[in-house]
Design brief:
Length: 203
């Protein structure tokens, strides 16, 4: 008498086990799971000083230099999607120029320094073990100081500070961990620069 084996229970059991295993692996393999902490250091490109630079077109011999923005970031994962932290950014700009006034040549220098300290909220939208995309919003304190120095007959120098020390940023970014605790990050959006990127460590 020939017996027919019923493989259906076995197949269903294997499928269920595989599903549970994959689900468990996805949770534990998430790039920035609950309880994780990250530290990042980055540099920004693309600032909003084009209009300011155009104000110096009437002068001759204009030289411009800048540093930053430099970014320092701390974040702690409150759960698998929400991270809270702190962002610190710093940048400087300097213009040196000559101009003519009453047939006499004069030299001037304008400097700007700015920093911000913002509380940061990130919402993580990925579940990959290495790739960690997120949307971030920051709110907090911002300060900027302008100093103008001039050897002309009518200007003796002036310093201006921010009237409203209020800072805010909104960016989209990602971290990619090519090693278990070390990777790169990049962000674009409304911050001290349009784009930024750097290194990240996770522990």
């Amino acid at each position: 008498m020939q017996r027919t084996m019923n493989f259906r229970p076995l197949i269903l059991g294997l499928a269920t086990g595989a599903s549970l295993f994959l689900s468990s692996s996805t949770v534990h393999a998430q790039a920035f799971p609950k309880g994780s902490t990250s530290l990042s250091v980055g540099y920004g490109v693309g600032t909003f000083l084009g209009a300011i630079n155009r104000n110096f077109d009437v002068n001759s011999d204009v030289s411009y230099s800048s540093m930053g923005p430099v970014y320092f970031k701390f974040e702690h994962a409150m759960d698998d999607h929400v991270g809270l932290g702190l962002n610190v950014a710093y940048a400087t700009n300097e213009w040196n120029y000559r101009y003519e006034y009453d047939s006499t040549s004069y030299k001037g220098r304008t400097t700007r320094s700015t920093y911000s300290i913002l509380a940061r909220f990130n919402y993580h939208i990925g579940s990959d073990a290495k790739f960690d995309p997120y949307v971030g919003f920051g709110l907090g304190y911002r300060d900027a100081k302008w100093t103008v120095e001039d050897d002309g007959p009518e200007d003796s120098g002036v310093t201006l500070k921010s009237l409203m020390p209020f800072g805010m940023e909104l960016t989209f970014g990602f971290r990619y961990f090519f090693a278990p605790n070390f990777g790169l990050y990049a962000e674009v959006g409304a911050a001290k620069s349009v784009a930024q990127g750097g290194i990240s460590v996770k522990f």
